[in-house]
Amino acid sequence: MNTVRQESDLRRDLRSTVDRICADYPDEYWREMDRDRRYPEKFVEALTDTGCLGALVPEEYGGLGLGLGDASVILEQIHANGANAGPVHAQLYTMGAVLRHGTEEQKRKYLPDIAAGTIRLQAFAITEPTAGTDTTNLSTTAVRDGDTYVVNGQKVFISRVQHSDLMLLLARTTPKDQVRRKSEGLSVFLVDLRGLDGVTVNPIRTMVNHETNEVFFDNVRIPASSLVGEEGKGFTYILDGMNAERILVASECIGDGRWFIERTRRYVSERVVFGRPIGANQGVQFPIARAHINIEAADLMRWRACDLFDAGQECGAEANMAKLLASEASWEAANAAIQFHGGYGMAEEYDIERKFRETRLYQIAPVSTNLILSYVGQHVLKMPRSF
User: How far apart are the two ends of the chain, measured CA to CA in Å?
Assistant: First the structure.
C-alpha cells in the first residue's frame, strides 16, 4: 500500500489563501496586537471574507462543507506564517456539537450567518474554577422553568466572549446525587449572547493575548430551544468537540514548530561568530534538526487523527496523542529558537519571544500533558485509573 500522503489541490489552495491573507498582516501587526492586548479584528474579517471560518459548515447552510483535515490546514498555515489562529479557531471546533446533535431549527437559524460571518460562534464555556479538567464535576446549573432554562454559575478561562455572538455552554441539568455516573445529567446549550441579561464578563490578563475571561451567570434565562440534542447527554456531545479541538490545536502547534525552525535555520545560517556560521556547529545544528524531526513525526499523528475523525471513527487516543506530540515538538522548536537567537530571541522585534509565549500555552490547554498521559495509560494501555 502506498503510504505517501499527496496533498490535494484543495488543501494547497487553502494554504495559498492563508498565505495571501497573512502577507497583509505581517509580524509588525501581530506585535502591535500583542503589545496592546487587542483583538485582531481586521485579520479576522479578512479571513472571514474568504469563507474559511465556515469551513466545516455544510454547503446547504452556506459553508464550504469541508472536513476537519481541511480545516486543520487553515490553522496550521496561519501559525506557519507567524500569526495566531487563537482568535478564530473555536468557530471550527465548536461546530461538531451543533452539526452532529443540533436541531434542524438551530442549524437553519444560525449556520448560514456563521458561514457568512455576520455572527460569530467563538465562545466555548466548559471550564470552572473548582472543577478544572474534571469536567463532570462542574457546578454551573441550568434548571428548566417552562419554556426557558435558568442558568447560574461561573466559568473561567473562557476566551473571546466579547467578540462572540453565540456561546456553547455546558451546564448541569440534573444534580449529581440524582445520576448514576457523574458524566450523566450534563447538557449543552447554544446560547445567544446578544442582549442577554445576567451575564458578567471579567477579563483575565495572561502572558499571551488570548482574550481570556471569567464569566458569571446570575439567573440567566435562555430559551428551551437553546438545548443542543437531548437533555443530560451533553458530556458525550462535548467529547466530539474536544477531539476536534485537540486535533486542530495540534495543527497550530505544527505550524508554530515549522515557523520556529525556519526562522532559526535562517538565522544560524547567516549569523557568523568566530569566522563561521553558528549553524555549522553540531551543538547548534543538531537540536534544530531534532526539533524538525519531531514536528514531522507529530504531523503524521495529526493526519492519522484527522482521517479517523473525518471517517466518523473513534479517534480519542489519536487526538490526544497528536496534541501531546505536536505541543511538545513546537515547544522544543521554540526553545531552540530562543537559545540560538541569543539575546535577540528575547527582543520584541524578532517575534521569537511572542511566539515562544503563545506556543507554551498548549502544554496546558486545551488539556494538560499529564491528563493525556493518564488517558492513554487507562484507556489505551488498560492500566488502573490514576486519578
Answer: 41
Q: What is the CATH number of the domain that holds 105?
A: 1.10.540.10
Q: What is the pLDDT of residues 23-64, one digit of tens each?
A: 999 999 999 999 999 999 999 999 999 999 999 999 999 999
Is residue 385 domain-resident?
Answer: no
Shared domain for 83 and 194, answered yes or no, is no
Is this structure's pTM higher than 0.90? Answer: yes
What is the per-residue pLDDT for 351?
98
Task: Give the integer Cα–Cα distance in Å for 221 and 219.
Answer: 6
**CB-based contacts of 131-137 (< 8 A; 24+ apart in sequence):** 133/367, 133/368, 133/371, 135/170, 135/186, 135/235, 135/238, 136/181, 136/182, 136/183, 136/186, 136/235, 137/176, 137/182
One-letter amino acid of 2: N
In residues, how long is the chain? Answer: 387
Percent of the chain residues topping a pLDDT of 70: 99
Checking if the pLDDT of 13 tops 60, the result is yes
Rounded Cα distance, 67 and 73, in Å: 10
Residues 6+ apart with CB under 8 A from 279: 265, 268, 269, 271, 285, 288
**Strand 166-172 versus strand 121-125 pairing type:** parallel
Q: Provide the mean pLDDT of the chain.
A: 95
**Residues 218, 200: contact at Cβ < 8 Å?**
yes
Phi and psi, residue 253, nearest 5° = -65, -35
Confidence at 1, pLDDT banded by 50, 70, 90 = very low
Is 3 inside a domain boundary? no
CB contact burial 52-89 (16+ within 10 A = b; e otherwise)? bbbbbbbeebbbbebbbbbbbbbbbbbbbbbbbbbbbb
Tell me which H or E stretch contains 120.
Answer: none
Nearest to 333 by CA among 292, 296, 298: 292
Are 225 and 94 found together in one domain?
A: no
Q: Are residues 342 and 246 in the same domain?
A: yes
CATH of the domain at 215: 2.40.110.10
Can you give the pLDDT at residue 160?
94
Which among 245, 252, 318, 353 is annotated as catalytic? 245
Is residue 121 predicted with pLDDT exceeding 90?
Answer: yes
270 tagged catalytic = no
pLDDT class of 4 with cuts at 50, 70, 90: low
